[in-house]
Amino acid sequence: MKAKKKIIVAVVLILIAIQFVPVKENISDIIPSTDMLKMLDAPENVATIFKESCYNCHSNNTNYPWYSQISPVSLFVDHHIAEGKDELDFSDFGNYSTKRKSKKLREIVEEIEDDKMPLTSYLVMHGEAKLSEEEKTIIIDWVTKVKSSL
Q1: How far is residue 87's CA from residue 4's CA, in Å, rounded to a whole number?
Q2: pLDDT (tens digit per residue) in 89-135
Q3: What is the pLDDT of residue 18?
C-alpha cells in the first residue's frame, strides 16, 4: 500500500510541476500579406471554411480552447501546431516558391478528398471543424482554380 501511495503522490507532483513548463502561444494580431487567403483573395465562404477547419494548426492564429492551458494538454497542442505549421503554414504561404505553392495546393485537395484533414484527433474536440461534403467541394473547386492560375 505504501508503494502505491508513493506512486500516486509522485504522479500528482509531476502533474503539478509540468504546469510550469512554458508553452509559447501561436497567436498573432497581424494577418501578414503572405497569408494564403489574403494573398489569393479568397472569397468569404472559402476563408470561413479554412479558418474554422484549418487555421488553428496551420497559421499564426490559433484559437485556444480553455483546456489547452493545462499541461500535459498544452504540450500536446503546442507540438500538434508546430507539426501542422511545419507541413503547411498558411500565414507564410506567400513566401513559398511557386513550385512549393502548387505542391501544397495539390496536397490540400488530396488530403480533403481522402478525409485525412482535419485530423480525426483534432475533430474529437473540435467537431465543428469537420468538413461537410459541400464544404469539401467548395474548397477543392477553389484550390483547383487558384492552382491553375499560379
Answers
A1: 43
A2: 999 999 999 999 999 999 999 999 999 999 998 898 889 999 999 99
A3: 65
**Cell numbers representing residue 134 in the block:** 459541400
The DSSP secondary-structure symbol of 30 reads -
d(CA 81, CA 141): 26
* Residue-averaged pLDDT of the chain: 89
Return the number of other C-beta atoms located less than 10 Å from residue 140's C-beta: 16
Render pLDDT for 33-74 as a digit per residue (tens, 0 to 9).
Answer: 999 999 999 999 999 999 999 999 999 998 888 877 888 878
When computed from its CA atoms, the radius of gyration of the chain, rounded to whole angstroms, is 19
- 3-class DSSP assignment, residue 116: coil
Alpha-carbon distance values, 75 to 14, 26, 129 (Å): 14, 13, 21
Q: What's the pTM value of the predicted model, to 2 decimals? A: 0.83
Cα 77-83-86 angle, rounded to 5 deg: 140
CA distances 78 to 56, 57, 69, Å, are 11, 9, 10
